[in-house]
Each structure stands twice: as structure tokens, then as C-alpha cells.
Amino acid sequence: MFSKIKIFGHPVHPMLIAYPIAAYTGTLVGYSVYAATGGTFWLNLAIALNVVGVGMAVVAAVPGFIDWAFGIPRGTGAKKDGIKHGLLNSAALVLFAITLGVYASHWNGPATSATAGVVLAAIGWLCTLAAGWYGWMLVQGWHVGVDLHESQVRSEPVLQEARARKAS
């Protein structure tokens, strides 16, 4: 259960996920402050971070999907947790993409309301938080993307089972 997309032996997906998480968080903060103050700086910041978040989420999803599809054995709990992780991240991506579609045309002028931005970004951010929990389960619980020493592999029954499946 190792990552298939690596740079110098390090899995790419975990390196990329910080960008959409930070951008999604900034998007939510930007829309929230815009709702409270009406300052167009905050609206523009939210829109810009929304673009970055959506773009980087797509970039991070590619190696994540490849790792899930080709690096995690079928029938394991890791495969199921990976599905949940991917679906929650996809839901967040769709919500932030909708938010971007609603507000992108307001770059040069104030939006009539920040309500949709705050609500959609908040729900998207919560989906991202839940997806992160499953992502951490993949790393911490299932050791996806973690290079273990042979002694560690021998002490993990799930990994022994995965190796046996791979060998057959």
C-alpha cells in the first residue's frame, strides 16, 4: 500500500494537499470578513483564494486517485477509507467550484450578498475537514504512503495480508 506517484521517494499527494486546504480556509475567511465588513478587498481575496483552492485541489486529486486506484489493494479497509476520503474531497471541490462560479464575475464590483459564499465555503470546508480525517486514517492507520521497515511490516497483519494478495 505505497504511493505510486513519488518524487525522490516521497509521495506527491501529501505534498500537494496543504495548498487547497490553506486556500479553502482563506476563502471561507475572506467571504466571512466580506460579509461582516463589505470591504471589496476581502471579496477579491476570497475569489483569488477560491481559484487557487479549486486549481490545486484538481492537481492534488490526480496523484491521490492514482495512489488509491493502483496502490491500495482491493477489499481492504484502506480502500474503503480512500473512497470516503476521495468523495468528501470531491464534494468540497464541487462546492468551492460553485462558489467560484457565483462570485468570479464580482471581481470588479461588490457582490450583492456574501451569504452564498459563506454557506457554500463553510460546507466545503467541513467536507475538507472530514476528508482530512480519512486521509490521516490512511496514513496513520493503514500506512498508505509510508515506507516501513521490514520488522514493522511483519508486525502489521493487514500489511502481511496485502503483501500475500499482491504476491498471488
List the helices and strands and how they pair.
Blueprint: E1 6-7, E2 10-11, H1 12-16, H2 18-37, H3 40-71, H4 77-103, H5 115-141, H6 150-154, H7 157-167
Helix pairs in contact: 2-3, 2-5, 3-4, 4-5
Helix count equals 7
Separation of termini?
A: 15 Å
- What does the largest sheet look like? 2 strands, antiparallel
Overall tally of domains: 1
Structure characterization notes:
The protein has 168 residues and is mostly helical. The chain has one domain (6-167). 76% of the residues lie in helices and 2% in strands. It has helices at 12-16, 18-37, 40-71, 77-103, 115-141, 150-154, 157-167, and strands spanning 6-7, 10-11. A two-stranded antiparallel ribbon has the order 1-2. It starts with 5 loop residues before the first strand and ends with a helix.
Task: Describe the structure concisely for a colleague.
The protein has helices spanning 12-16, 18-37, 40-71, 77-103, 115-141, 150-154, 157-167, and strands spanning 6-7, 10-11. The protein is mainly α and 168 residues long.
Name the descriptors.
2 strands; mainly alpha; 7 helices
